Amino acid sequence: SKITTYASLEDMELVDIIGDEGLSGCSIKGRPGITKILDMVREKTIQAVIIYKLDRLARNTIEALQVATLMDRKGVALHSITEKLDTKSAMGRFFFTLMASIAEMERGIISERIQSAMERKRERGEPCSNNPPFGYKIVGKQVVPDIHERRVEKRVIELRQAGRTVWGIRDLLEEEGLLNRRGKPYGKTEVYRIIVRMRQAS
């Protein structure tokens, strides 16, 4: 509604409203909405792009500046309602660079806080997610060794040392009734990851 109002106040014809609902703004990759907008910019089928806030575009400074550079080269203006931004002016382009850097800094601070919180949970032996690393399981609020998966690890290493291929190990695990935590036969990738993980740990 604010984008619609902004376009009306600026005497701009609003041709479409495109969103990436539920997707992170950390990167442009994997976001069909922004990809569509950039295609419209490259084809010069639009004259301006209106966003509600800069970090809805991208929280990565390099990507944000790349978008701004593309728009500037194609003669497409970028308007941000919250930051009162219009990249058609020199001041607007400078402000865009500044705000993009601040958005990335905020993302970095949030990431550091989350990492710190995860470290404290690990120190207390608490699960950091509902999907603990292979070889462990969640009991109550504690992460404890998973005897079944530890047995699988041991068996995989034994077979590998005996010269078995990844595919051969996968087939033998299934024959021996050793299933993954989803109750299904282990896949080639799962077996390979176990081998790599055990090799790194040794």
Identify the overall geometry.
Answer: elongated
Number of helices: 7
Largest sheet: 3 strands, mixed
Model regions low in confidence, pLDDT < 50 over at least 5 residues: none
- The ordered H/E elements are HHEHEEHEEHHH
Determine the N-to-C terminus distance.
Answer: 58 Å
Global Rg: 25 Å
Strand neighbour order, sheet with most strands: 1-2-3
Q: What's the overall average pLDDT, rounded? A: 81
Q: In percent, how helical is the residue content?
A: 40-55%
Structural class category? mainly alpha
Give the beta-strand count.
5
Beta-strand share of residues: 5-15%
Key words describing this protein structure:
mainly alpha; 202 residues; two-stranded antiparallel ribbon; single chain; three-stranded mixed β-sheet; 5 strands; 7 helices
